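Take a careful look at the protein record below. Let me know whether the structure tokens fit the sequence:
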Amino acid sequence: MDEGIREKISEIWPYFTVADATAWDTDPFVSSLIPSSQRPKSILPSAKSVIVVRTPVSPTILHTAPSIFYKEHYKTLNIQLDLIAQQIATLLDAEGFDAVPVARDGYQGIRGLKEDSSSFFSHRHAAYLSGLGTFGLNNTLLTKTHGPRVRLTSIITSAELKPGTPLKEDICIKCGKCVSSCPANALNGDMYPGGLDKMSCVGRTEKLAERGITPCGICIAVCPIGKRVIPPSEEFVKSVQKYELRN
């Protein structure tokens, strides 16, 4: 059963990991951070597994961030993830399982972030429980292959799939590049779940949105973990960064 369903999911999108839906209640780290109302079984009482889908963020485009180039790339990745999650949920439904694709951003824009900076479901904690990565100084999930340069979404399902487990080794090397590079001074060098002044980060996001070039992306662009590329020319970066709204 497990292998057959996994194979069918892989035909839609092969880049996924699985977390045990009960891990939110048993893992000391995650259970101390995520309220019971935002755990898989509160969303889908029949839940047995959480499928975490990932797609890489282009490090080349990130070298221009914040920019219209990165903004459009980010938007495209979100659309891609939504479509993949819906396709997987549809497959699972056809196979006789309950399945809920969870919106990849569970908050109501910048205004919502200012009122409550948490989302109704955390994909990064699902990814952590699935064994995809660990948290870094920049408060994001770091993976071995791409560092923090991944976007995530999740599908909660009653299908019982063999889950991964959290990594024992820490991926973050604590180099501090994200801390020193943050334009909003929102990072203080403490490891997650501390270390981030969320309102300073949201304030930076709000200002960039007014210029039409949100999100920021700098803290994940400078991270040395994962795949790296030769950056585009400085002339190209400057030319791209000129495209923004001006008052």
Summary: The first helix runs from residue 2 to 12. The chain has twelve helices and six strands. The chain has a mean pLDDT of 94.
